[in-house]
Amino acid sequence: MAQQTYQSGANYDTVDLDDIKELDEVFAGNVEDAQEKLETYVGYPRNWLQHPYIIEMMKKVVGIPFHNTGDPETGSNFGPHAIEAEAQVLDFFRELLKCERDDSHYAYLDSNGSKAIGQMNLFARDYLRAKNPGKKIVAFVPACAHYSSKDGAEAADVTVVALAHDNGVVAPEEYAKACNQYPDYAKIAWIVCGGTVHEGSGDIPAILQTHRGQRHEIVWLVDAAYTGVSYNLLDAMPFEKKPNFLHDVDGIMTSVHKFIGTTAPLGLAMVRREIADYTGQFVQYINSRSKAGGSRDAKSILEAWVYIMFLKNDVFRKWAEACVEKAIWAKDQLENAGYKDVLLHEMATTVYFPQPSKKIMEKYALAPENGFCHLIVTPHTLHPDDLGTNALGEKFQGYDSLRKAVEAIVADKRA
Q: What is the rounded CA–CA span in Å between residue 110 and residue 235?
């Protein structure tokens, strides 16, 4: 494996030809190291498929400083920007997440999923403060949620209460118990839909029935970072696990890069318009209202637009179905090799099992947790034959890393 050779104490005053040579060597080493990881890692929920057509398309904007500022619905007087591309990406997600009308929900793209989660907490906090003056606010965060859910709630300066789970699934009773313990608080309640490590999902309609107070007293938010696209496109996915607005939730976040596979991280925050109306201010010098963070990298937004328009739902659905099928295959292989307590939730793609050797853990980047670990079946881990073709008739170049990892894990068990 190529080694990264960054050094502290380098000369930052002047540059000579030796510096350029070293820069070339270090950069090449990092590219080689990254490519090796792309072809072996199966422990992180992110799709790393590469698309030559899109790569060539994005090369055209490498030297252009695109950024979007202000409200994505109105844009601003700053450029170059990709406001129109952002509008179409948001339109794609409004349709996917079953918004009632085009104008019924406010949506926003941020630099990553963690930032989107933080923004959702701010939207909810500002709304609850306006509707419940003088009341304290508590956020119910499943203990199995991504760490940024807790961090985002704490950054919003509200009380945070962790909800217990069973292999990634939080029972409706946990929400009812928490609501009863904080009767005089306004509430932010996070529901995990395919969470990190176990990929468990709560029964969304059953959870929503646990609090029958006034609508303005509680804001229900869904964390669907990895599953926002795939779960909604799987016909066999139970309705109660689909993260969309057919359930009477107030907001949903998802990470564009995790399943669609953009090279740059990108997080989506989408909430009922009423929830977002209490956050932000008009900023005169950009001639726009700023509801969330300021300038955003518009190249990542432009890339997301290209991905969506070049691939579309038929491809995403094919990938989702293939990932579910291969996750079942992986679980069967591990159990046949003698692994006990292998967990795979219904229609999920995260296989949770006892840790193999340290060598296997490190090579395939299997994520550890209390003696167990998980491998995640994402499109790039599959064989090209499993993924179908793009609009040009070309096969998607999966790395077949799932099969290689499972075979290595099985051999490790039998050694």
A: 29
Contacts of 314 (CB under 8 A, 6+ apart): none
Sheet holding 105-110, edge to edge: 105-110, 267-272, 251-255, 218-223, 186-192, 137-142, 159-163
Predicted structure pTM score: 0.94
Select from 3.90.1150, 3.40.91, 3.30.2430, 3.90.120 the CATH code of 17-49+312-414. 3.90.1150
CATH for the stretch 67-306: 3.40.640.10
Q: How does pLDDT run across 203-250, given as a tens digit for each residue?
A: 999 999 998 777 889 999 999 999 999 999 999 999 999 999 999 999
CA angle 365, 368, 373 (to 5 degrees): 85
Can you read off the two tokens belonging to residue 112? 């990553």
> Which is nearest to 67 in space by CA: 92, 86, 94, 90?
86
> pLDDT tens digits, residue range 356-399?
999 999 999 998 999 999 999 999 999 999 999 999 999 999 99
Question: What whole-number distance in Å separates Cα of residue 383 and Cα of residue 381?
Answer: 7
DSSP string for 266-316: -EEEEEEHHHHTTS-EEEGGGTEEESS-S-EEHHHHHHHHHHHHHHHHHHH
Give the residue carrying structure tokens 């498929």. Answer: 49
| Dist CA 152 CA 148 (whole Å) | 6
Which residue has 């789970």 as its token pair?
165
Strand partners, 169: 166
For the chain, what are the domain ranges? 17-49+312-414, 67-306
Instruction: List the structure tokens of 47.
Output: 């799709």
Q: Tokens 């003696």 label which residue?
A: 371
DSSP state at residue 227: T
